[in-house]
Structures are given as C-alpha cells and as structure tokens.
Amino acid sequence: MKPKLEKIVEILVVDVGGSNVKCVASNHTSPVRFKSGPTMTPDLMVRNVLEITKGWRFDAVSIGYPGVVCRGRIVSEPHNLGSGWIGFDFQAAFGRPVKTINDAAMQALGSYEGGKMLFLGLGTGLGSALIVDGVVAELELGHLHYSHGHIYEEYLGNQGRKRLGNRKWRDKVMDAVEGFRQALLPDYIVLGGGNASFLKRLPPLTRRGENADAFLGGFRLWHKQFENTAVPTGIACSITDEENWYDTTTDKDPA
C-alpha cells in the first residue's frame, strides 16, 4: 500500500547530478552530498541517500532528475548515470510520498517570481523549462536543431564552451537567448547552471539563477501557493557555500 501524505511537514530534496547527488531537508541546516557517476543506479542512489541522511526527519521527497520527466514519470535513462531509472518505484524505496521533476525544471521553479518565465540551465548540456502563471512546462530546447546538423546543446553545453572558447561561447549564448525570447515571449529569462558564471554580461530582462534555487524548487513542489515559499532559515547560506558541505568521500561524520 502506498503511503498517504495527510500534511506536508518536512521535505527532503534530492538533486541528482552526473558528478554528485546533493541532499537538503527543510529541518536540517547542513546539506550533504555523495559522488555519483556511470555506476549510480536508482536503487544505489536511494540507499546512499538514506544512509547519508540517517537520523533526519522528513515526510516527503522531491527528486531533481537529469533527464526527461513527463507528468512526474521518468521516461528516459540518464546519459551520465547507471540504468534502471525508468519505472523505478521511488515511493516504495523511500517509504514516503515522492515527486520527481527534471532538474532544470526544479531549479526553474525555485527561480520563479511570477508571470511567464523561461529558464535556461547552462551546464553539461542545456536544461530548460517554461513557467506560466505558476504552471511548469518541462522543455528540451537543447535538442532543437541549431546549425550544420548540430543541436543547441552541442554549442551551449560544456563541451561546446570548451571547443569554442569562452568568448565565442558567450556570443552563442547571447544569440540563443534572444532567439528563444522572440519565439517564446517570456516576461523574463533566468540563466542557471554552473556555466552561467562564465557570462560577463547578461541580455536584457535576464538574470542569473542561484545554487539554492534548485532546493527551493524542491520545497515548492509540495506547495500549491509557492510564491512566498523560502528556503528554511539557515539552509540558504549552507547551500551557497558548498565548500562546507558534508561529503561522504572526504569527511568522516556530518556536522
């Protein structure tokens, strides 16, 4: 029998990446993480999460997944992790209600300030999401045709930045942002992801996303009226200063 959630009290947010899995809970001010990679299966991920968060109290789980998610279901295997993600029963594995969303969409949700917002995640690839009046539409703009048989992700992703060099890559980003603006007509655009830091200037009506946005998005998943939802006191600073995160690969005990 699936667990039923009568009232959301505490939420665990799990951000699954190709290099690390990061965890934050609404009642725990010390974020934690552990290494992922090509051997990371969903079962192993859950077991590691439960181990690294042992003693934490949470009533529900939000998972940011680095792949295609449709109506809360994973529909494609990740590129940089192990297999078995499609159809995996996270709710049974965690023993709690679980909501799964694309990782870019989760960060977009945390970045949202009303109206119509386009989110572009400049990272390993190109994440994207559109939010209109609070409704999230997960996108795959990175798979659109760009030029000479290549897709946007191959130019705007991390490999494209390394191949082109930062200056040409910035020009490509500026052109793409303007093209998406004209096509999708957002009120504003948020540029997130690790490579957003390589941008020296931003296009008009555009701002940078923050690392904490992904976790705020995970909290907001469980709140219908999420505009005023904030990262719980004490967590925001911990998320921003990732050098102080407890890492199971280097540390012995969480603080």
What does this structure look like?
- It is a single chain.
- The protein is an alpha/beta fold.
- It has two domains: 11-106 and 212-247, Nucleotidyltransferase, domain 5 (2-Layer Sandwich); 114-208, Nucleotidyltransferase, domain 5 (2-Layer Sandwich).
- The protein is 27% helix and 27% strand.
- It is built from eight helices and 15 strands.
- It has helices at 42-52, 90-94, 103-111, 152-156, 158-164, 166-184, 213-220, 235-240; strands at 11-16, 20-25, 28-35, 60-65, 69-70, 73-74, 98-102, 116-122, 126-132, 135-139, 145-147, 150-151, 188-192, 206-208, 246-247.
- It has a six-stranded mixed sheet, sandwiched between helices. Strands 10-9-8-13-14 form a five-stranded mixed sheet, sandwiched between helices.
- The protein is globular, with a radius of gyration of 18 Å.
- The two termini are 36 Å apart.
| CATH topology description of the largest domain | Nucleotidyltransferase, domain 5
Secondary structure tally, helices = 8
- State the strand order across the main sheet: 7-4-1-2-3-15
Helix content: 25-40%
Cα separation of the termini? 36 Å
Q: How many strand elements?
A: 15
User: Rough shape?
Assistant: globular
The oligomeric state is single chain
CATH architecture of the largest domain: 2-Layer Sandwich
> Strand fraction band?
25-35%
CATH class label of the largest domain: Alpha Beta
Encode the helix/strand succession as letters.
EEEHEEEHEHEEEEEHHHEEHHE
Helix and strand composition category = alpha/beta
Give keywords.
255 residues, alpha/beta, Nucleotidyltransferase, domain 5, 2 domains, 6-stranded mixed beta sheet, 5-stranded mixed beta sheet, 8 helices
